[in-house]
């Protein structure tokens, strides 16, 4: 059992723009985060991951960085950051920053130089190619719709952008680019930050020659994924980064890694491999997509979700480490997606928390999850803010693939805006998020769902999260125990055991509004296992367990 602080931690993710506004301009900021440190310490989390806070023209809300060594105007100054870091540490909270180095903003100095001429010394910082007969160099589409290549008149060439055209991809083959990245990482680490969440880090190495992708049915583009995901040099670059930078500091790292298998993850997170501590897999986020296509009505299928999560639990046990999440700033709210945000809102929010936090790995809580924030209903595309949604809406409704009505329904179900509505602090105007005009719609349910109300209610989701987080500190089995799935085919129950030496946990979750009955493994009954936590009034253990709608129970047994 290799003990590490980052395995024992709980991470809280902050989307600064929507967290708390301290100066009344309607946009969350660093001062707002400082004002909530008492709240976060009280919640019991250990690490705060801040989505990008750097200078940015905000084409993709900060994921397009124009200066890595400065703070976005709306968020504050470097002095504010220093204050936040010092005060967070006083509150026993570590700070993890978002490292976005697959791409920069097109307004970054490097790119402005790079595009100025073919012999500029920054030219090779980015990926430039000649077009083919007036067309882009290949048929790849971008993550945010349209071609992945943008024509630049100045030098009559195209640059690669896997996201928006204002997010040109860096050329990691160029050693100078890697040096720049390591330098800026050191600059922040020397300030005393405690880690990095690395944006789409598995996309930094592209297959040379940029071959055309297989045509995507119904689209004029080809599939770029085989050529950009987990590319030929990605592990080499990460090991270099680790040897040159990360290994010199006691920090935590998590790489965002879409399209990554357990086998890939063993390489990224393997304890002996000197790359990253953990990755964010997307496999469980795909259980309600249509062959990877996210805009659909498909509902998550529990047996499939269990299969995927179990594969990761077993695959990485003793080899690497899992991150545990069910929502973040790119995903819909978990209670709306996997729970029941109507009649069983409270029960299902708590059940999902239990189900996730009892798995092996480091849990991530996304702001507002701890009070059960729900998806937002947007009525037309004009109300949307997210570039991914807006571009997808334009592309699919204009080429006739999806009707406007269907697309709005899909956006309300799966769109990233669901996660980005302002944090609901209390029932005063704008949910206490700002005294000005909020940059984005506040969910109208804030009078019912807010922090102030839940602080006062001992049975609230918020107080349940506090209890759950405390358990992790008390029982090493929650962190280090191995995992075994029971009843894999059960349609509505997610039941598993955790085992550490002579101790065991039984975690039983009902993912439906129907009561269900399960047989309890005999040793838990014989050894009079104790209930550690449950979202319903206490129930004793016996051979048969009947789980009420969205009930979750955790029993602990020690021989
Ligand atoms: C992943 C980030 O989480 C997402 O918000 C962003 O749009 C893309 N990477 C591009 O940076």
Say how many strands there are.
Answer: 20
State the major sheet: 8 strands, parallel
- Within the largest sheet, what's the order of strands? 11-10-9-5-2-1-13-12
Query: Multimeric state of these chains?
Result: single chain
**Small-molecule binders:** 1-deoxynojirimycin
The rounded Rg comes to 23 Å
Structure annotation, total helices: 19
What does this structure look like?
This protein has helices at 5-8, 30-35, 37-43, 78-90, 109-116, 175-191, 225-228, 234-244, 262-269, 302-316, 334-337, 345-357, 387-398, 404-414, 417-420, 451-456, 461-474, 476-480, 522-526, and strands spanning 11-14, 47-50, 54-55, 67-71, 94-99, 128-129, 149-152, 157-160, 195-198, 252-256, 278-280, 323-324, 362-366, 482-486, 493-500, 503-510, 516-519, 530-534, 544-547, 552-558. The protein has 559 residues and is α/β, with parallel strands linked by helices. Helix 13 (387-398) runs antiparallel to helix 14. It has an 8-stranded parallel sheet. Strands 14-15-16-20-18 form a 5-stranded antiparallel sheet. Strands 6-8-7 form a 3-stranded antiparallel sheet, with no helix packed on it. The mean pLDDT is 97. The protein is built from 19 helices and 20 strands. The protein binds 1-deoxynojirimycin. 1-deoxynojirimycin binds next to loops.
């Amino acid at each position: 059992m290799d003990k590490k602080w980052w395995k024992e931690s709980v991470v809280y993710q902050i989307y600064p723009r929507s967290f708390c506004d301290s100066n009344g301009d309607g946009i969350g900021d660093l001062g707002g985060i400082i004002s909530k440190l008492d709240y976060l310490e009280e919640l019991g989390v250990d690490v705060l991951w801040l989505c990008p806070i750097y200078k940015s023209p905000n084409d993709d809300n900060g994921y397009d960085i124009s200066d890595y060594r400065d703070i976005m105007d709306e968020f504050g100054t470097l002095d504010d950051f220093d204050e936040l870091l010092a005060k967070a540490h006083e509150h026993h909270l570590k700070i993890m920053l978002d490292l976005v180095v697959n791409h920069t903003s097109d307004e970054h100095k490097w790119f402005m130089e790079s595009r100025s001429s073919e012999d500029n010394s920054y030219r090779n910082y980015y990926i430039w190619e000649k077009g083919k007969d007036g067309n882009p160099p290949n048929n790849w589409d971008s993550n945010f719709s349209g071609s992945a290549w943008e024509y630049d008149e100045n030098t009559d060439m195209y640059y690669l952008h896997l996201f928006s055209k204002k997010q040109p991809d860096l050329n990691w083959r160029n050693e100078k680019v890697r040096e720049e990245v390591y330098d800026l990482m050191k600059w922040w680490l020397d300030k005393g930050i405690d880690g990095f969440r690395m944006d789409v880090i598995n996309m930094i190495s592209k297959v040379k020659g940029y071959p055309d992708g297989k045509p995507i049915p119904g689209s004029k583009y080809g599939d770029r994924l085989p050529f950009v995901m987990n590319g030929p040099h990605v592990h080499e670059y990460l090991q270099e980064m680790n040897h040159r930078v990360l290994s010199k500091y006691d920090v935590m790292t998590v790489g965002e890694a879409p399209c990554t298998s357990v086998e890939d993850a063993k390489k990224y997170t393997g304890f002996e491999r000197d790359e990253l501590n953990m990755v964010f897999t997307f496999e469980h986020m795909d259980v309600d997509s249509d062959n990877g296509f996210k805009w659909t009505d498909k509902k998550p299928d529990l047996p499939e979700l269990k299969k995927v999560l179990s594969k990761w639990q077993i695959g990485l046990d003793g080899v690497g480490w899992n991150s545990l999440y069910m929502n973040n700033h790119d995903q819909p709210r978990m209670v709306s997606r996997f729970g029941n945000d109507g009649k069983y809102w409270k029960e299902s929010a708590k059940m999902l928390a239990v189900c996730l936090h009892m798995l092996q790995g480091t849990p991530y809580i996304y702001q507002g999850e701890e009070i059960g924030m729900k998806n937002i209903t947007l009525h037309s595309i004009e109300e949307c803010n997210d570039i991914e949604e807006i571009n997808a809406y334009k592309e699919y409704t204009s080429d006739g693939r999806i009707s406007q009505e269907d697309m709005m329904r899909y956006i309300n179900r799966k769109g990233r805006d669901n996660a980005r509505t302002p944090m609901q602090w209390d029932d005063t105007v704008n949910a206490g998020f700002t005294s000005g005009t909020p940059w984005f719609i506040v969910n109208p349910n804030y009078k019912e769902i807010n922090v102030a109300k839940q602080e006062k209610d001992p049975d609230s989701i918020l107080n349940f999260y506090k209890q759950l987080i405390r358990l992790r500190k008390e029982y090493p089995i929650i962190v280090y125990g191995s995992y075994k799935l029971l009843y894999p085919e059960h349609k509505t129950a997610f039941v598993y055991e955790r085992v550490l030496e002579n101790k065991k946990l039984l975690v039983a979750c009902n993912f439906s509004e129907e009561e269900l009955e399960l047989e309890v493994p005999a040793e838990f009954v014989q050894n009079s296992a104790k209930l550690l936590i449950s979202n319903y009034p206490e129930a004793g253990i016996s051979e048969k367990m009947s789980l009420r709608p969205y009930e979750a129970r955790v029993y602990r047994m020690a021989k």
